[in-house]
């Protein structure tokens, strides 16, 4: 069965990079651009991984992660942030890992491999 990732990020370029890497890895990627849409998607679908930008329109990643954990959603969650001083706080919110921006193509490949498993990602 094909693995599925929810990726919530308001920056188009970052969404596009993840989309390309997921396609290469043969992973289905549901891309959304704000926190409220991500909350709805996470409630309505089963994902193998949820990746949330910390600062998004509508609902920030920290608030979203806390809400999902309160609702019993135990899917691995990754925070992506430009604020490296928030690592401990983001872990307390329920994130399993925190990545600091800017992310590059290899970072996205690493995330997919680590949390989804070995794949067909091109080197």
Question: What are the defining features of this structure?
Answer:
alpha/beta, 123 residues, single chain, 20% strand, globular, Rossmann fold
Quick take:
It contains 5 helices and 5 strands.
Question: What does this protein structure show overall?
Answer:
42% of the residues lie in helices and 20% in strands. The chain is α/β, with parallel strands linked by helices and 123 residues long. The chain has a single domain, classed as Response regulator (Rossmann fold, 3-Layer(aba) Sandwich), CATH 3.40.50. The chain is globular and about 30 Å long.
List low-pLDDT spans.
119-123
Number of helical stretches of at least 4 residues: 5
Shape: globular
* Radius of gyration, in angstroms, nearest whole number: 13 Å
Q: Briefly, what CATH class?
A: Alpha Beta
Kindly estimate the percentage of residues that lie in beta strands according to DSSP: 15-25%
Protein structure class: alpha/beta
Largest sheet: 5 strands, parallel
Count the E strands.
5
Q: Which fold name corresponds to the CATH topology?
A: Rossmann fold
